[in-house]
Structure formats: structure tokens, C-alpha cells
Specification:
By secondary structure, this protein is α/β, with parallel strands linked by helices. It has three domains: 4-97, Arc Repressor Mutant, subunit A (Orthogonal Bundle), CATH 1.10.10.10; 123-357, 3-Layer(aba) Sandwich (Aspartate Aminotransferase, domain 2); 363-466, Aspartate Aminotransferase, domain 1 (Alpha-Beta Complex). It is built from 14 helices and 17 strands. The protein has an eight-stranded mixed β-sheet, sandwiched between helices. Strands 14-15-17 form a three-stranded antiparallel β-sheet, with helices on one face. A two-stranded antiparallel ribbon has the order 1-2. Helix 2 crosses helix 3 and helix 5 packs across helix 11. The relative contact order is 0.13. It binds pyridoxal-5'-phosphate. Pyridoxal-5'-phosphate binds at residues 114, 179-181, 206, 246, 251, 279, 281, 308, 310, 315, 320. This is GntR family transcriptional regulator / MocR family aminotransferase.
């Protein structure tokens, strides 16, 4: 068998080299990206079907499909269902002069936090699980769903949360919901019914926590986060009777809630008769050790543990869970029924099947390896291109925080990066009243290949040297 195969015709050879240590998929992605950047493939050009390209390169069709999906997610390719994949209209060759104003440059490399590797979604396994659910679900399963969620899924989720998150998970206290976002709304409505008027949030923190609580008519108090997580003394000084926390990997600083703070916040909740809402959004991905167990395991009567498959499978599925303190579970299910009469059953059955068969665990292991490689690429790229930038919050999750040299102007860097098609996200977006510390960027790496990470960081390094600072 030849070690090198080419395709796309003599005028545009795409090579894969089987003797190279670089995985075939990475080689193919890189070759296509370079062809677009160099202008050899132009906006609107049609690509061969995945079947043809796979045959010509003697690789699997799945590999080509994944590669196209990744380049689609990065903005190089456009996919219209039912027709050929083409080079995206917005994909510009490197160095080509745009006739439009520079502010309209599309984002080519986006360090947006919160986006997982969209090309890793296990399409075939999910499709098979959905097909099996459709075939085998009894007719009764197709009526209005159980507002708590499918019992088999709840059993599987409870077992998973006990094993992987150290949670005290009883399936009777679980409600399947449309992602964390809905779980938070259900919990806050229930707490509002119970007389809670004030909710504390982390500062800096996820703007959606603040926005959702405000939308539901609650008073929101920001509480500072330091290098050990939320400041529990400052929390105790508020009149909040609930707090929304991201203990496993604080959003966005990336700090892990220190053991003494975990105990302190649980003691605060007991003394205040308060509820902790634990947002477990990317806890499956811990790199230096086993994931730290959920705070919920310490105090199941005080903590609601909310999670979803948005990082482990895909945000588009809108599947999550709320594991509530026992006395709140029925009220959460009642609000779920009023909100949308229950989550889609076929998807619940498909997830139950992935959990029960061990394929969900296998997929998580695959993702951990993939994200660990991307995280290493980020560390490596900074070491190489910008050693004066300190990276923190790397123990877990899909983003880290870059501490820029003192005096650097967060906004000027973000703006300059945008003109070079790189999406950056300033820490100031997440700050409420916490005084600005050193200038920082929140760098999501989940949906960027190692090559894109390296290229993006070299552009940032360049900007740091050419963008005026605040002094
Ligand atoms: C802090 C935080 N919580 C939760 C989520 C997940 O939300 P959902 O499950 O509604 O997709 C995200 C997604 O990026 C997040 O950043």
C-alpha cells in the first residue's frame, strides 16, 4: 500500500502521508485549511463528496466527514444540507485585501469559551441509539413524557453522577431538563415560591447566571471570587438565601473551589437555611488528577446539582438534569411540566442507551484525550510565542485565563484581534462590581484544533507588541 495518497485533481493535490506521526485527520484538515488560505481553493469552490475524497485518499468516509465538519465549524467551509460542500463565502485567503471595511472581517479563529469540539459529536452512535429508541419504544412511551424524565435515563444518570461526580444521586430527585439553562430557571422558580428573594452569584461570573435570576424577578448580589473560589465571608455578609456556584472550574476564572471553602459554603447554607445551586458545566474534564467530586455529595439536602450533555455530546441536544435536594424535587418536576410538558422522549431514550452501554464513558475518555492535546497546544504556543503571558485556570475544563502584561489594554487587544479575524473575549465581560485586576483574556480552546490555537496565539503575541497599552 502506498504511504502517500493524493486527491482533488492534479491542479490541487491534497496529500496524506501514512508514515507521518501526525494523525490522518489532522493532515487532511491542515491541507484543506492551507489550500483556502493560500487561495488555491476559493470562496464558492465545490469540494468532492466525502465518499469520493475518502476513496481517493484511501481513508474512511467518517474521517473526511469529521474533517469537513471541523472546517465548517471554523468557518472555512459551508455545508448546505442535500448539496455539495463548498468553500465558505467568508473564507478569505491570507493576505488578500478585502474591499470591505476591515471591521467586517469574519472570525476565523475564535477563542470563545463554552464551545466544545463540535466535530467530535458521535453522529453514528447517536443516530443508531435514536433509531433503536424509535424502533423499540412501546407506544405508551410516545405519549406526554414523565415530567421527571424517563425512568431508565434517570437510573443511568444517577449511577453516572454517583460514580463520576461523587454525587449522592437518587433517581427520584432527578428531573431531566433542557440543559443547565432550564434547570437553573426551574430551581430559581421553586426557590422563589419558597420565599427566596435574593440570590448571590460569582463575580467575575457567567453573565447568564445574573441575567436569568434577574429575569425571574430576583435580586442578584455579586460576590467576589479570589484564587480559592468564592469569598464565603463576603457571601455571609449578604442577605442571599441561594448562591449559584461553579466549584469544579469557576466560570470564567478557572479556579477550583478550595476544600476549606467547600466546607465553609456548605456551613453557610446550613446556618442560613439557604440553597447552593451547583453548575457542574465542564467538570468531566480534569487534567492533573481525577475530577474533584461535586459539592452536592457533601450536602445533598442543601445543594442542587445541575449538569448537561452540552460539553460531553453537543449543546444542540438541549439535554440536561437537575438533581435537587429531596424536599424540592417534586416542585421542580411540577415547574418542568408547566414549562414544556417534559423533555423529548426519543432523545432521552437514546442518551439512556449510550449511558447503559458504556459508550458514553468511552466517548468521554476520547474527549479527555482530545482536550488534553488542545490544552497542551495552548500551553506550548504561549511558551513559544508569548512567554510573558501567564496562563491560569488550566486544571480543568475547556478554557483558561491569560494574564496579560500589566498595562496591556484588554479592549484594544480584542478589537485589534477582531480585525485580524481572531475572536478574543476580555475578562471585563464577566466582571460585575469586582475591581479590575490585571488585564485578562478568557481563552476557550475546546473547538479549536492545535494548529488553529498555535496560529491564534502567534497573532495575539504579535498584537501585544504592536497595540498601545493603557499607560
Ligand atoms: C458556566 C456555564 N454553565 C453551563 C453551561 C451549559 O449550559 P447548557 O447546559 O444550558 O447548554 C455553560 C456552557 O457554556 C457554561 O459556560
Amino acid at each position: 500500500m502506498p504511504t502517500e495518497r493524493t486527491s482533488l485533481g492534479p491542479e490541487l493535490p491534497l496529500r496524506v502521508d501514512r508514515t507521518s506521526p501526525e494523525p490522518l485527520r489532522d493532515q487532511l484538515e491542515r491541507a484543506l485549511r492551507e489550500a483556502v488560505r493560500a487561495g488555491r481553493l476559493r470562496a464558492g469552490d465545490r469540494l468532492p463528496s466525502s465518499r469520493m475524497l475518502a476513496r481517493d485518499l484511501a481513508v474512511s468516509r467518517g474521517l473526511v466527514t469529521e474533517c469537513y465538519a471541523q472546517l465548517h465549524a471554523e468557518g472555512y467551509l459551508a455545508a448546505v444540507p442535500g448539496s455539495a460542500t463548498r468553500v465558505a463565502a467568508t473564507a478569505h485567503p491570507l493576505g488578500a485585501r478585502s474591499t470591505h471595511a476591515t471591521h467586517s472581517a469574519p472570525t476565523r479563529i475564535d477563542f470563545r469559551p463554552g464551545v466544545p469540539d463540535l466535530s467530535s459529536f458521535p453522529r453514528d452512535e447517536w443516530a443508531r441509539a435514536v433509531r433503536r429508541a424509535c424502533r423499540h419504544a412501546p407506544a405508551e412511551a410516545l405519549g406526554y413524557p414523565d415530567p421527571y424524565g424517563d425512568p431508565v435515563l434517570r437510573d443511568g444518570l444517577a449511577a453516572h453522577l454517583r460514580r463520576v461526580r461523587g454525587a449522592a444521586a437518587d433517581p427520584d430527585h432527578l428531573v431531566v431538563c433542557a440543559g443547565f439553562a432550564q434547570g437553573l430557571q426551574l430551581l430559581l422558580r421553586v426557590l422563589g415560591d419558597e420565599g427566596v428573594r435574593t440570590v448571590a452569584v460569582e463575580d467575575p461570573g457567567d453573565p447568564d447566571h445574573h441575567a436569568i435570576a434577574t429575569m425571574l424577578g430576583l435580586t442578584v448580589v455579586p460576590v467576589p471570587v479570589d484564587d480559592h473560589g468564592i469569598d464565603v465571608d463576603a457571601l455571609a455578609a449578604t442577605d442571599a438565601r441561594a448562591v449559584i456556584l461553579t466549584p469544579a472550574h469557576q466560570s470564567p476564572t478557572g479556579v477550583v473551589l478550595a476544600p476549606e471553602r467547600r466546607h465553609a459554603v456548605v456551613a453557610w447554607a446550613a446556618a442560613r437555611d439557604a440553597t447552593i445551586i451547583e453548575d457542574d458545566y465542564d467538570a468531566e474534564f480534569r487534567y492533573d488528577r481525577e475530577p474533584v467530586g461535586a459539592v452536592q455529595g457533601l450536602a445533598p439536602d442543601r445543594v442542587a446539582l445541575l449538569g448537561s450533555v452540552s460539553k460531553s455530546l453537543a449543546p444542540a441536544l438541549r439535554l440536561g438534569w437537575a438533581l435537587s435536594p429531596p424536599h424540592l424535587a417534586a416542585a421542580v418536576a411540577r415547574h418542568k411540566q408547566l414549562a414544556d410538558r417534559g423533555s423529548p422522549v426519543i432523545d432521552q431514550l437514546a442518551l439512556a442507551e449510550l449511558l447503559g452501554s458504556g459508550r458514553y464513558d468511552r466517548h468521554l475518555r476520547h474527549l479527555r484525550r482530545r482536550y488534553a492535546a488542545r490544552r497542551s497546544a495552548l500551553v506550548q504556543a504561549l511558551r513559544q510565542h508569548a512567554p510573558d503571558i501567564e496562563l491560569r485556570g488550566l486544571a480543568a475544563g475547556l478554557h483558561a485565563v491569560a494574564h496579560l502584561p500589566a498595562g496591556a489594554d484588554e479592549h484594544a487587544i480584542v478589537e485589534a484581534a477582531r480585525r485580524r479575524s481572531v475572536g478574543l473575549h476580555a475578562m471585563s465581560r464577566y466582571r460585575m462590581v469586582a475591581p479590575p485586576r490585571a488585564p485578562q483574556l478568557v481563552l476557550g480552546f475546546g473547538n479549536l484544533t492545535p494548529d488553529a490555537i498555535s496560529e491564534g496565539i502567534s497573532i495575539i503575541a504579535d498584537l501585544l507588541h504592536t497595540t498601545p497599552d493603557r499607560r
